Amino acid sequence: MAVGLLTVAGGWAVVRLFEPPVVEAIRFAPDDGVRAQQKIFDLARRRTRAGPVVLSEAELNAFVSRHLDPADLPFGEPALRLRGDDLAEIAGTVPLGRLLQESPLGALAQALPAGWLARPVWLTVRMRAEIVTEPRRALRLKARRVAIGRQRVPVVVLRLVLDPSSLRLMRIALPPNVETVRIEPGRVVIQGTSPRSRI
Question: What is the topology classification, in CATH, of domain 2-193?
Answer without folding.
Answer: Bactericidal permeability-increasing protein; domain 1 (3.15.10)
